[in-house]
Amino acid sequence: MTTPSCPAKPRPGDRVAVLSPSSGLPGILPLPFELGLRRLREEYGLEPVEYPSTRKMGSSPQERAADIHAAFADPAIKAVISSIGGDDQITVLPYLDRELLRANPKPFFGYSDCTNLLVFLGNLGIVGYHGGSVMVELGRPGAMHPLTADSLRAALFTHDARELTPAKETGSVNDRWEDPRTFDREPAMLPADDWIWHNAGRVVQGASWGGNLEILSWLLMADREILPAAAYAGRVLFLETSEEMPGADAVYQILRNMGERGLLKQFPALLMARAKNWSFGSPLGAEAGEEYRVLQRQSVLRALAEYAPGTMAVLDVDLGHTDPQLIIPYGGQVRVDGVARRIVVTY
Known about the structure:
- Residues 205-336 form the LD-carboxypeptidase C-terminal domain.
- By secondary structure, this protein is an alpha/beta fold.
- The chain folds into 2 domains: 15-160, 3-Layer(aba) Sandwich (Rossmann fold); 163-346, LD-carboxypeptidase A C-terminal domain-like (Glucose Oxidase, domain 1), CATH 3.50.30.
- The protein is built from 9 helices and 16 strands.
- It starts with 14 loop residues before the first strand and ends with a strand.
């Protein structure tokens, strides 16, 4: 696998595509979407451009692929940003034109189900950006979290090396997006523990690969876009889990199966996200939520001990389904310095 190259970045005043490659939730939950669009304009100076399926629930994979093609092929569009995730983007991949996308590289921002497109673009040699959806991060009630806003700004506009810093507070509890009162105040936050370092004591630098653990497991099951294990040798793995809140056993089993495939041992370093530990379907209290995180950490370390005992790991990194959220370059360089306890990404 060749290391992907970073496409040109937008500048304030540029047009950016806002797509729904997964779910068309902007059509039924417009409040966070409109707020996110407004912040793109007012706080980042970008002009969002919507496409036919951006607000369409139940759009076909072909329709979504057509929007992706139109956004990447348009020279006036300088970046592509997902509205939100979903659960069926894998069905879009067969309809994507590899040559069109390779010939028209653009920065793509998304996470969760958008792991599909990030993996696809990475295989074409295009660096993407894990994070920064319109409805969740840009549409956060009350205000964007400063850590999220600064990370997104750096990823959008620069190619700089940037040190990631642990959040001092974290939140997982959400209010209903259907209720306008939700957007009158910021979400409740709790103090955040520092990152946890495992097998530290050396420095690892390499191109990143990974994303949402559940989506990666689907790609593995479908034998879609996953290269032979040796292609990932020396890369920095990063993983996160979603609001579906998979149990510790499920997390271990996915990692175990990646280990059986020979994948885990290829990565000398792993960044594991601070797990989202509350959802409307599983509204855990503070104590139960912390126990959920503890059990997930244990499952990750168990899998590493069995399949990649030499891998350095940093647990509870603020990436993925976290608030605040740090943007991770997908295929870009990541330096994990276990001696100095520092993580530096290059956007």
